[in-house]
Each structure stands twice: as structure tokens, then as C-alpha cells.
Design goal:
The chain is of the alpha/beta class and 257 residues long. The chain folds into 2 domains: 2-207, Rossmann fold; 230-257, no CATH class. The protein contains 6 helices and 12 strands. The strands form 3 sheets. It has a 7-stranded parallel sheet, with helices on both faces. It has a 3-stranded antiparallel sheet with strand order 8-9-10, with no helix packed on it. InterPro entries: ETF_a/b_N, ETF_b, ETF_beta_N, Rossmann-like_a/b/a_fold.
Length: 257
């Protein structure tokens, strides 16, 4: 069985975001690039399915510029068997529809895959739309926001368990299918030294994105930081007096009581 994990390289959540005053876009010159955290959960899920089903292989696939190869190297060091890179320096400006289309073409060319796993969303744009577009272009069923996946290879299906309000929803889907993974059942493993050394020697095929039926590139008008918080106010005095003043401020000034 062949499992593919689609991943995206994103800025680390610990990176301090700055706006370039010249062009009004986010300054990426000092950004630390990492695998999208939710995609790491997808990798871990795929590796655990491989451990439970001998003979299974896991391939990491990404669509991004040259720097995205480091994300694939990390995925290989975590334990993925193979990797493929759809290299395009303009990938950062591609819309979610084009991303799904390009990844579908790449998976079709590298497959056949029986199961595709993705993170539920990327933490840079929070669109949560590319996996759904990918499933559409593959013409596969998909299940979104799943913390745990069970594979029944003999029955040719996966069982997805996801939390809904007040209950656990169990969805059984025939293969081939696509599932988006969220944080839940497992913590992603760290790359091992042995894995990092093996990843350096592993060849990563470079694929062209193609240009057939491409959607218009979205135009970014401007990027801005969220407005800063107003400074807080400390109330002095005895607790009883401070509590009374707090109630007055919440009632008369903030008008939340």
C-alpha cells in the first residue's frame, strides 16, 4: 500500500512578523521555515499506519520554492520512505485552487496512492481549503479534521474518528480517499540522527508544476499587522475598594455589565 502525505513549508509560529515598508508585504528575510505543524501530525499518522501494516510506504510531497526541499528532508528524517518536490518559485502566490490542482497532478504521476493525508490547515493562511480542492481534483472522497485513523487493508477502507460536540463521530470511507489530520491521538516524532544522515543521501525528484487550466493568481492588496492592544490599567488601594472600582469601570466605561 502507498500513502502520500502532502505538506507545506510555513514560517515558524515563533517568528516575529514584520511588514516591509517598501512593498507593504510580510518581510520574509529573517523567517525560520518549518513543516506546517498540522502536517507533522499527518506524517506521524502515516508512519504509524505503516508500522501497523508491513509493506506500506509513505511518500512526502510538497509544492513550493527551492527552499521547501528542507521540509522534505525533515520528513525523510522523521521516517518517510520517499519524497517528491513540485518546485515553483511562484508557489507562494498560488491560490488554493491551483495548489490542489498541482498536487493532484503530482500525486497521479507518482502514484498510484491508496491514501493521502494532509494537515487540517496551514498555520500561515489558515484557509483549510487546499486538501478539499485536492480531493476534488483526484475525484476521491475525503474526511476532514480527524485526530485518529484506522486502516483495514483487507476491507479496503479507513475508519476515521473525530470529535463533534458532545460525541465522537465514526466515519468509514472506502479507499482511495483523502483525510485531513488534526492534533489529537499522537505527538509527532523527532527526526533521528540516523534518519537525518539517510535523508541527506536520499534523492528527491523535482517535478514541474505545469500550467494547464491554471486559475488566475490572487492579488494581494496589502498585508498589515493586527492593531495593538490598549494598555491595561492597574487599580490601587484595598481589595474591597479596587473591586468596587472595577465593577464601576466595567459597568460605566466598558459597558460589559
Amino acid at each position: 500500500m502507498k500513502i502520500a502525505v502532502c505538506l507545506k513549508q510555513v514560517p515558524s509560529t515563533e517568528t516575529k512578523v514584520r511588514i516591509n515598508t517598501q512593498d507593504g508585504r510580510v518581510d520574509l528575510s529573517e523567517v525560520e521555515w518549518v513543516i506546517n505543524p498540522y502536517d507533522e501530525y499527518a506524517i506521524e499518522t502515516a508512519l504509524r499506519l505503516r508500522e501497523a501494516h508491513p509493506g506500506t510506504t509513505v511518500t512526502a510531497v510538497t509544492y513550493g520554492p527551492e527552499r521547501a526541499r528542507t521540509a522534505l528532508k525533515t520528513a525523510l528524517a522523521m521516517g518517510c520512505d520517499e519524497a517528491a518536490h513540485v518546485c515553483d518559485e511562484a508557489a507562494a502566490d498560488a491560490g488554493w485552487l491551483d495548489r490542489g490542482r498541482v498536487l493532484a497532478a503530482a500525486l497521479t504521476g507518482q502514484g498510484p496512492f491508496e491514501l493521502v493525508l494532509c494537515g487540517k490547515q496551514a498555520v500561515d493562511d489558515d484557509l483549510a481549503a487546499v486538501p478539499q480542492a485536492l480531493a476534488r481534483f483526484l475525484d476521491w472522497p475525503h474526511v476532514a479534521v480527524v485526530p485518529a485513523v484506522e486502516l483495514d487493508a483487507e476491507a479496503g477502507q479507513v475508519t476515521c474518528r473525530r470529535e463533534v460536540e458532545g460525541a465522537t463521530e465514526i466515519v468509514k470511507v472506502p479507499l482511495p480517499c483523502l483525510v485531513t489530520i488534526q492534533k489529537g491521538a499522537y505527538e509527532p516524532r523527532y527526526p533521528t540522527l540516523k534518519g537525518m544522515m539517510a535523508a541527506k543521501r536520499k534523492e528527491i525528484p523535482v517535478l514541474a508544476p505545469g500550467d494547464a487550466d491554471r486559475a488566475p493568481t490572487p492579488e494581494v492588496i496589502a498585508e498589515t499587522l493586527p492593531p495593538g492592544r490598549k494598555p491595561g490599567r492597574r487599580l490601587e488601594g484595598e481589595p474591597a475598594e479596587a473591586a468596587g472600582e472595577l465593577v464601576r469601570l466595567l459597568t460605566e466605561d466598558a459597558k460589559v455589565l
